Amino acid sequence: MLKYIGRRVAYTLAILVLISLVVYLIFDVLPMDPARLTCGKTCRPDVVEANRHRLGLDVSVWQQWWRFIVGLFKGRDYAEGVAAFHCPAPSFGYSFNRHECVSKLIGQAFPVTFSLALGAFVMWLALGVSLGVWAARNKGKFVDRASTTFVLVGTSLPTFISGILILLFIVVKFNLVSPIDLGKWHNPFTDPFGWIKTFFFPCLTLALAYAASYTRFTRSNVIETTAEDFIRTAKAKGLSARTIMRKHTLRAALAPIVTIAGLDFAGLLGGAIITEGIFNLPGLGRLSIRAVLQDYDLPVIVATTLLAAAFVVFMNLIVDILYAFIDPRVRVA
Amino acid sequence: MSKPSEVLEKEPTSASNFKDQVELRSPKQIAWARFKRNKVAIASGLVALFFVACAFLAPVICGILNLSPTKTYPETLDEFGMPIGAIGGISAAHPLGVEPGVGRDLLAMLLYGSRISFTVALVTSVTSIGMGMLIGIASGYFKGKFDATVGRFSDFLLAFPATFMIVALSLPLTQRVEALNIAKDNGARIVVLITFFVFFGWMGFARLIRSQALSMRERDFVMAAQALGASNWRIISKELLPNLWPTAIVFLSLSLPGFLSAESVFSFLGVGVQAPASTWGLVLADAITYWKEVPSYLLIPSGMLIVVVLSLNLLGDGVRDALDPKGDR
Predict the structure, then answer these.
(1) Domains of chain A
(2) B23 part of a folded domain
(3) Is there a contact between B305 and A289 if contact means CB atoms under 8 Å apart?
(4) Which among A18, A31, A158 has the least Cβ separation from residue B264?
(5) What pTM value is reported for the model?
(6) How many folded domains does chain B comprise?
(7) Which domain covers residue B286, as residue numbers?
(8) Do A305 and A288 meet the contact criterion of CB atoms below 8 Å apart?
(9) Mean pLDDT over residues B245-251, rounded?
């Protein structure tokens, strides 16, 4: 078991190093000059060069990458003399356009994205799994057909449309959240009501799309498992329908959902660009898309991209390890 | 499948009325018959076909109605730039109303916009499925080192945040495409978008095909072909491919709506096609500003997108059920 985990951790680290390197190389070959973008159109060449040096862009891409990696663990110093400043570890670089350490920007945006992802995750799991199980137990009946309709509509409704419709025709129309409060960050520990107010509808938007596919997945898995021999055995033993469902069917049917749910959650942690944009939430997705569309703030773009990749890779690792506990066959392979 | 019928035609004596009792049909005929019975699939297929035909015939339709997607009709707007008349200025001249602020015809905008969306969706789906097919067959059939390398590479790509990469790289890459003189403006943006979608979109299908090819290469008919000395190319093209086509068709019809809405998402976000073109995503992004004054401007394009994606999804489900060999059980 330890050997398996060790191997997975090593593989994960290798992938992370590779991804960060590839991202650095990609942005290096692009026709964008981040130093040129630090000051306006009437910028003097010597200012550009000075900024290039201050940003640490005057060395090779390998060195830039190495400095980034070192900065993650040790923090980083920029410029010299009176203009010197320090970004403490973990340093993701320095945004020249915002005059802010990127880690600080990420630190502000992450709680928003995390709240959104977590809220949506809980909603779609609760809704999708219970509806899927309910439909599977009443296969062919009204509930089942209703859930099929829900699945179809949910999977066909792009998030940006459902988001707009929910925002405009429910939230704004009935004045459920005042426009000033929309997208405002409330600390869930000191102001739980404000937090729910901000996040309920964005989470619902995200959850709707995911819940549909989870309903479909749960339903077909439960139906398939019900036909297995071990369920027949359990019935023959005289177990109650309830016990069979709880202890045998659901356990087997829901195991694959661990994988998908983990990866979907990780994908959202990197930022739900569309939902954050529509509901004006200052999360990671909006941070990155603003960095691209407004001023091409490269340090922010690189940092958010790498962070999103890291979430996916780490969650992959966690899912793999969890799976080794759930399903002993995995350890051998 | 043609063999049993030949045998029967040559030897009608022993079972002269056998053919009347059991209808002999090719898998294609069986699938088609099953599809025809599925009324929902037929209806949604017709709806999807209608939208595709409209997109294809956009110049003709606009010619008949005397409309243009770029021409403005200032006489239809009041002094505040809002359309005159009920429901977004719907009239005989402008069947879906006009765009607030600028005054272009909404029908013409949506028709020409759908051409872009459909083209992107179709080209992306076909290319990524072709790529997935090629790579999937190669790694499933040849196994070994190639398979391991491809597997690691697709693991790596799957960990990559595709949406972020598209957002972050579309701008500089569009400039690069323009600099290389491949295409200009929106043409360049479409090229970049399709390339990205394909680059991050082939892995799922390749894995599916790989697993099928992996199991198929151990089956008797492939071993028989190998024993007869057939070349790898012959086995792949004559034995494997015909068995993998149904999977590809199902995957195609199910991935079309996905790429269709992906295209509108990116133009909605401002990293895809841009004005003066008018994809559905762009219209929707603009419509948010006017949702209170001109709700129809928002509801018509969103309704259209939902109907198209829904009908394509239903069509895909129908195709899958029709091609499923267990379908009649």
Answers:
(1) 2-102 (no CATH), 104-330 (1.10.3720.10)
(2) no
(3) no
(4) A158
(5) 0.81
(6) 1
(7) 39-323
(8) yes
(9) 85
